[in-house]
Amino acid sequence: MSRTKKRAPGGGGGGGKNWGKGGKRKAPGGQGGQANQQQQKGNDGWSTLDMNNKRFEAYYMDQGIVPQEEWEAFMDAFRQSLPTTFRFTAGKTTTRQLITQMQERFVPELSGVEFEGEPVKPPQPLSWYPEGLAWQVDVRKSVLRKQPDFQNFQKFLVNETAVGSLSRQEAVSMIPPLFLDVQPHHLVLDMCAAPGSKTAQLIEALHSPMTSSPEHSDPCPPGLIMANDSDVKRAYMLVHQATRLPSPNLCVTNVDAGAWPKIQVPWKGQDPSSSVVVKDLKFDRILGDVPCSGDGTLRKNVAIWKEWTTTNGQGLHPLQLRILLKGLGSLRPGGRMVYSTCSLNPLENEAVIAAAIRECGGKDGNIRLVDVSNQIPELKRAKGLTTWKVCPGKGRHLFDGSANNMQPKQEPKSAKADKAATAGEPAEEDEDAAFNAPEQTTHRDDTTAEKGPEPTAESPGYRQTLPAVPWVDSWQRLKELDPSMANRVPKSLWPAGDEAELGLERCMRVYPHYQNTGGFFIAVLEKKGAADVESQSAGIARAVEAMDNGAAGPSYGASSKRALSPADDTEGQEEGGAKKAKVDEVQQVTEPGTPAAEAASSSKVDQQQKDATPETTSSAPATAERQSSKQKQRETDSGYGLPGGTPYKEDPFEFIPITNEQVISIHKFFGLSLNFPSRNLIVRNAEANPLRTIYLASTAVRGLITGGGQGMGVHRHFNPVKLRLLNAGTKAFARQESNKSGDLECKWRIIGDALPPIRPYLASTSVIAATLTDLAFLLSEYYPIFDRIPAGDFKETLKDRKMGSHVMDVAPSEHESIVLKEGIDLPIWRAGASVNLMLDKADRSALSCRIFGKDVSTNARMKLESNKGAVSTAAPPAELADEVDTAAAEEGADKAQMLKTEVSEEQGAPAEAEAVADVAGEAAQP
Ligand SMILES: C[S@@+](CC[C@H](N)C(=O)[O-])C[C@H]1O[C@@H](n2cnc3c(N)ncnc32)[C@H](O)[C@@H]1O
What we know:
Elements: E1 21-24, E2 38-41, H1 54-63, H2 71-78, E3 84-88, H3 95-109, E4 114-115, E5 118-119, E6 124-125, E7 134-137, H4 141-146, H5 151-162, E8 166-168, H6 175-180, E9 187-190, H7 197-207, E10 224-228, H8 232-242, E11 250-253, E12 264-267, E13 277-280, E14 283-289, H9 304-307, H10 317-329, E15 331-341, H11 350-359, E16 367-369, E17 382-383, E18 399-400, E19 407-408, H12 413-423, H13 430-436, H14 446-451, H15 475-481, H16 483-488, E20 508-510, H17 512-515, E21 520-527, H18 536-548, H19 557-563, H20 585-588, H21 596-602, H22 604-612, H23 620-626, H24 629-638, E22 654-655, H25 661-670, E23 681-683, E24 693-696, H26 699-706, H27 718-723, E25 727-728, E26 730-735, E27 748-750, H28 755-758, E28 767-770, H29 772-780, H30 793-800, E29 804-810, E30 813-815, E31 818-820, E32 824-830, E33 835-837, H31 841-852, H32 858-867, H33 884-892, H34 895-907, H35 911-919
Parallel strand pairs: 9-10, 9-14, 10-11, 14-15, 28-29
Antiparallel strand pairs: 1-2, 3-7, 3-8, 4-5, 6-7, 11-25, 12-13, 15-21, 16-21, 17-20, 18-19, 20-21, 22-23, 23-24, 24-26, 26-27, 29-32, 30-31, 32-33
Residues 173, 191-198, 228-231, 234, 256-258, 289, 291, 319, 609, 925 line the site of S-adenosylmethionine.
């Protein structure tokens, strides 16, 4: 059998030169030279691990996840490193330019490049991703970094990633959001969102559904994206990521999705005479990209080869089911939820989907799997399984006989264990360790081996060379064999016979050999009901507007008080006769009297969840007793969380009164039109006082923050406490200190990232027309005093403008034979005698490379000069003596630094900065 670059059946994959040089070594079992005994080692140190795991092969071969004739291609693909894949941000003004740059510059530049003596295919768009937005290069990241041929391309990727125009993301990870079909008016929940690759796609889709064209982008759509993660550090990663894709519609929360709370919001019907009432928030779209064993990521996380055991997946099943049920309970009729994992294991996939549908009433209930087989037809995928096998825990002790011929024991385990204990014999569980131990036992005896060549992976005899798996036919059978084990294992792991009826074939399995990717599982579920039911975003907006106009707010009354007890507040919110999705739903899918919920809570993962998330099921008084007075004091000092829950230390989210003098000065200076959503401006202090940063939120976000009734401690509103809200909206205005502050009419500048949502409301007096020549000057000039600005309209208009923040509107134009095809808006600061482009270093470099094909910014020049030992030491012109600090402060600060400063100054504790630093090295997950 050749272990070569066999082209994958799915086309497009497997054949690229994206793996290291294969070395062969003698297999532990003594039969060398086969693909499954291959060791991968590239000259860039790709991996020296043994990429074999016979238990893995035996387990999945028995599950029948791919046909025998594809087995070799399937396993072979897993042993190769992943290609590099990335996506351009949909709907940004730069997106089309960047795609053109790929086509016209990098595809030709990288054609004919070789790696390890073989040609590498030039970058190509992923055929199944809309609008040519996603691309693939058939070399792994480390090669891109090290090979000189890729240097310019690598720089391009780094620059554009830093400014949010591009996201590196594994191809399969891009799939789930595509099936959600997010629209601008949708209320969207991403239940397990960190580190945020898919959240980014959801944000993009909300603003510009699957398009590369900025004309169809809505900078402040009616919908909402709520990105949640139960791990607080990872949730702060989401906050950090959000700075790359600023959106007024984004909220970041930090709760256990398996105990997703009921959220109340103000709502008003379409009838103008109706009053504002309270509604439970129902989402139009939900993504449940749940925690999983991750064996579909073998190509990236090579340690899994060694660590994988048959029990990896099943411990997560209860948590996955709880999260899915909570999601389905929070969906509006006609709403859609996508459940996904990067695991191949049916126990984490089809078994979870089937149990959830059953729990919601089965095939006649209110949840159905959507047939998406005609959507994204270019994406090759396999159907979901309608049957699978279960090997519960370390089940080997349940059997007699050789590993290849397991017979159920004659006596139930418990009786035998008792006897053994009496006789002082070792516990039989030791045998399980043997099955799951790293050594791989092959079961061809030596005589067979001598008889002929080893069967190839695609021949029927191959399975005999792998260990047997201790499968148990049903939960009832397990109960007969080992009642105590059965008590700890959920019945919902096993197929119940109704899988085909439930439509499990509609699930999707993506395998690595199909299109040179990792492995992934995706299921699209829908809550039955009219798909055209109005999104709650419209009712929330009507309610918020009515309250702005003096209508009475809703009465949260007793329900709000009840919500103070988290134990009361975790029940499901089904409509239309669906069963309630309770926190203990796992219990309901097991044999009566079987405490499967115990199994759930005894699983390691669950325990970790409990450690990391609010104790939402504990009783308040009991917890209060446990708290030391010191801890109580700390909580009082730093904010409040739910009683008994993790303290919630965030500064409050306060909307600034529109009568605030700073808001009035912003309105006047920028000539904002009357329909600018001034009421949606947030600050992070209890006094609602604009000190350094003002955030802009969408109306749906305002409804969410102000809903839920009265808050606690420093928090005026309850929802932020309940959801442990970490971030809302996007930074819009920053206070600009200047030596000439006294002369400023308005001390606030527009933050560049927030230009898209603010630009439509700006008066023409805040915008200054410019050309590419003016932009080239501002990018490359150390001291951009008025006298040095190229003669023209920009210079003349600028001189007449007031000191402060303006927008430079660069029209399509030409400079030194470089053509700018599409106009761009950029923030500038008009100082006393100079003007500055208000972009940080990364933005300047990226902009410069994108337009001029090289970095012409002062930053690059400074680097170059310092390398040559000739840094410009010329003093700034006298005109700038009292204003250089304004420019330098802005230009010198990169985003991360700005973020840290702002966080530590505004939030008292630099929690976000710390979290970002802690997780900085973490690679984006699929
Ligand atoms: C597979 S990752 C999600 C990847 C993410 N969707 C992306 O595309 O970047 C699973 C995430 O779930 C989070 N998680 C684990 N248990 C959770 C729970 N009970 N509730 C919410 N999030 C949870 C983990 O912290 C982890 O960040």
